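Worked example

This section walks through a single chain of length 691. The input is the sequence exactly as stored; nothing has been trimmed or padded.
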Amino acid sequence: MLDRLVPDAGANNVPAALRIGGRLDRPALRTALTAVVRRHDALRTVFHAADDTLTASVLAPGETDLDVQEIAPSADGPQAALTAFAGTPFALDGRPLIRVGLLADGDDDVLCFVVHHLVFDTVSAGVFTRSLAGAYARVLRGEQPYPADEGTGPVPVLDEPAPRPQSTDFWRDHLAGFDPGALETDCGTGHNPARPTLAGGRLDHTLTPAATAAVRKLAKVLRAPEAVVLLAAYYLLLAAHGAGPDLVVGTPVNVRGDGAADAIGYHVNTLPLRTAVDPGESFRALVTRTRNVFFGALSHADAPVDALLAEVARPGASWRGSLFRHVFNYVPAPGDAGLAFGDAPARPEPAESGYCKFDLELNVLATPETLSLRVVHGTEALAEADARALVRRYDALLSGLGEAADRTVAEIEVGTDADRTALRTGYEEAVRAGGTAGFVTSAGGREALPGVRGELCLVATSRPAADDGGYDGEHPQYGPYRRTGELARRGYDGTLEVLGRADRRVTVHGVPVQLDRLEALLASEDGVRAAAVVLRKGDDTDTGGLVAFLAAPDDPQLLDRLRKRIGAELPAAAEPGSFVVLDALPTAADGRPDLAELERRAAAGGTTGAGGADDADGQLLADLVELWNDVLERDDVGPQANFFELGGHSLLAAKVAQRSGKLAGVRVRLADVFANPTPLTLAEHLRAARA
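Given that input, the structure is written out below as tokens.
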């Protein structure tokens, strides 16, 4: 589905690279490559995408002669050249989903191969590499690529057994009542575009000796695998940044059975590990619960959890998966240290596609001596500074946990020395300048870390009289304070940024939306004299939708311009489901828009004016309503029914995209359905596309 959502992105590519100590023989490599691909049916499996279907077939061995491409060098260095090669998407048009290239870098060759996730996973990469190296060495010696004792016939695609009913029941119970809105953190960009680029960034970090020692000490003391200790700390890190307390983290596991360790193909199940972070419990208790969840999940890994997507609440139109947005992967050190291609030694070389499907992927590479992190983050969710801060805090958190196993979660400090300096410096500079001093408090009541959004509290620069009742609390370091109701965050340099009223922050489709920021964007558009946005509660759902009231002239292009600006500057959930154009907005006694009156009108369903249900092309809207009912197997859908709130998911959205395109006679992308999740908004989009 991501290939359809972002067709120009290689988000589903699995790259791997090896630095070769010398030059490879190109003809011998091509012969070896052809033999390996011909041997494995999985590498000859191709797909044809048509409308809302994806059809697989296996090419005959003689139909797959692959060339070894020469990778063009980059002025930005070898990593940039490899990323460009690895990030180029595959077309699902019947051609092989594998390509191999060589990059000449000084006296070395860098061998890079890229395979689509439909037929490959990271375990396959090791199998493929060893097979290719062995075949290459034999070709150089003048032998056949595969010895006779390994057989000559093709290796069929591994047929995974059907999931056990008890495993499906386990996951159904495990995910019951889960609210995906809890995955949202209070750090990062807050941007969740309906038409994402899936651009990703990568950070590499070796944990300090103190952190590594603490993890291994805790593993012994708490009788838990170090992977479980690391995962429990990851939950704690996410909770400290506003996620949870009910959290799900995805963990990929290899589901190849006994005797199938060398099977090439996609045989990974990413398990949604769910646990709650309770501020009143000890870290020891969190590790125990995480361990139980971890082993329970492993014993039921045969059931593909994607099959339960329709049963998990989907809080709105988002391309992100509803099960998890953060991934944890513990990887023991690879055993290919002695790998060679002929007489040339080979060692792993970093290779990334430049894309990321999640907010944050924490990959831990474990050796007997060190623990190293490879962190991949979606740049639309987390800027590099945010991701770097998370990595440093994770290291500091682990270092401190060695002596804190029995402390409560609320007592465990997550920040770094740099964080404490930024918080202290920002406060002290405000006091010295004679300005208003304040701090930002998180939802849990603690001072928010730099980069984390929370409520601004103003501090009394001189202690008030004992009977002063005008303060809301007392900070242990700053003294008495007043809550302001303003949303703010402290920058990494200590500066304070006020983001708007906290009481104008609502959750739509599980995503926080700052209404005053949305209103400011709407009001800045040419011709809009005033704007106000309210949240309309749904009749049978807690999420409802946004209604924007505009004081503006009758301009047929206005809504299209506004939607484009919202999509470019704000989260996808910030796009109102309805727009109401009025001559003037009703005002309260203070001259501001009367929000109570507008909420009443929104609840009454009044959407007259631009964007209303009384559009001229009523037949298209009626056809889309019927399409919603058919795809969702319902009979109660109305023009403003949100597809995803009613149980829709990406697979069904692909059907809507294909069939609505036929209805309107225009091309409809999967991203268009995410951006326009109601029959009404999609009808408006289709009319604009036809025009």
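What to look for: The mean pLDDT is 86.
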